[in-house]
Request: fold
Amino acid sequence: MAEYAKPLPVTDADSRRFWEGAKQRKLMMMRCESCGRLRWPPRDFCNWCHTPGGGWIEVSGRTTLVSWTVQHHLLHPAFSSDIPYAIVLVALEEDADCRLIGNLRDAKPEELEMGMPMAPVYEDVTDEVTLIHWKPG
Reply:
């Protein structure tokens, strides 16, 4: 695998299961064992009911496009060949208040419509890291 020149996510104790799931082509989310809400980013307590702890579940990956932006200005030299590119915000089918961000794949920004279904795209960027992006679907 060629060397990946772009910034990589930092895996910590809270996010490890998410990134391990991505490597296996699974979308893993932390769920509160008290109120059942999903949370992103993963952390030691629920965003909604503030109960400590939580467990991990695999979610479907079915999402809805909530918003997007097109990046025209270069903020990091490693992205120079990507400009312009779209960044999308998607809401999970299992909990619409739980939202993830990623780059748009397999479509042009002008093809996007608010509320359209989206699906994950898994991109192995190093032997250890798989990123999750989004495409219409």
